[in-house]
Design brief:
Layout lengths: L2 E5 L6 H10 L3 E6 L6 H9 L3 E5 L5 H8 L4 E4 L5 H6 L1 H21 L4 E7 L22 H20 L2 E7 L1 E3 L11 H11 L5 E3 L5 E2 L1 E3 H12 L8 E5 L5 E2 H12 L6 E3 L13 H7 L7 H11 L3
Parallel strand pairs: 1-2, 1-4, 2-3, 4-5, 5-6, 6-11, 7-10, 8-13
Antiparallel strand pairs: 9-12
Length: 310
């Protein structure tokens, strides 16, 4: 049993991580400003007696430092989303970079042995080749992406200074139960499903060759928890968390058609679109964490369609 400090734990990914921590007997200090959090769910966790809730913001370093006292490990999930970072770069830098530094500096001061950081595959930009490897070129294109890469470098700085260890998980296209309908990676899913439930075919811009590496939030949460226990000798690295499969928008549409169970064909809107592709090389995840995905896209999307109100 250990005491885990988790920022942003009341959000989408955190709501899947915390039950796993409780299941294995950990105590949790949940630090969240509840901008997107679920207060009813937090109340349920607090009622177990194993979760302490701190309603605060990572931008306030003193609050972070005080709340982390007595913890053994840190999971840093709190961030401003990629689309919001473009609308308000100042807020993105404030929360994503200043917030990262506050958390990582406090971890160094408190002698925290392991920091797990929610990084992002967006640090790669548009890749020239697939699959995308951790030691390949990076080209972050937005304040959010820049902040995620900066976070990895800050972790390396504090590790050299304090001797703690870190793992930066470069999440690919996360989806699953509990995700907001407006979330960056799920907007296309929700758009397609709404049309299909109305008996209308999904409309795809261009040829539908643009792709994502969709990874289920359950597998994302597993990677976070497994990172807490990874061998220190293999730590201090960024690790891709994806499936290794690039699912095109056209393939996604057909998967959702099958899941909803309607007899339609996708329609293609002939216009120029930027064709970007995503697929993770997950060799390092297997070697360092012993992790690999357990939920394929077809199973995950079918579950999402039948259990979630989209």
């Amino acid at each position: 049993m250990s005491k885990v400090f988790i920022t942003g734990g009341a959000g989408f990914i955190g709501s899947h991580v915390i039950p796993m921590l409780l299941e294995r007997g950990d105590e949790v200090v949940l630090f969240d400003n509840m901008f997107r959090g679920d207060r009813d769910k937090v109340a349920e966790w607090v009622a177990t007696g194993k979760v302490t809730f701190i309603d605060q913001d990572v931008r306030y370093g003193g609050a972070v430092h005080a709340a982390m006292k007595g913890c053994d490990s840190v999971i840093h999930l709190a961030a401003v989303s990629i689309n919001k970072s473009q609308a308000d770069p100042f807020e993105s830098v404030d929360i994503n970079i200043v917030g990262e530094n506050n958390v990582f500096a406090a971890a160094a001061d408190h002698g925290i042995k392991r920091v797990v950081f929610a990084s992002s595959a967006s640090v790669y930009g548009d890749p020239e080749t697939l699959p995308m490897k951790e030691d390949g070129p990076v080209s972050p294109l937005t304040p959010y992406c820049i902040a995620k890469l900066a976070g990895e470098h800050l972790l390396d700085y504090y590790a050299r200074r304090s001797g703690n260890t870190w793992i930066g998980l470069r999440f690919f296209n996360v989806y699953g139960p509990g995700q907001k309908p407006t979330a960056y990676y799920t907007s296309v899913i929700n758009h397609f499903v709404k049309r299909l439930r109305a008996g209308e075919p999904p409309v795809i811009d261009g040829s539908g060759e643009q792709s994502m590496d969709f990874v289920h939030v359950h597998d994302i949460a597993r990677s976070v928890v497994m990172s807490l226990d990874a061998d220190p000798a293999k730590a201090n690295v960024a690790i891709n968390i994806g499936t290794g499969i690039d699912t095109t928008v056209a393939e996604l549409a057909r998967t959702l058609i099958a899941a909803v169970g309607v007899n339609v064909e996708p329609q293609f809107n002939p216009r120029e679109v930027l064709v970007s592709r995503r697929a993770a090389d997950i060799t390092r995840a297997r070697e360092v964490l012993g992790w690999e995905p357990t939920i394929d896209v077809q199973t995950g999307m079918k579950e999402l369609v039948h259990t979630e109100i989209v």
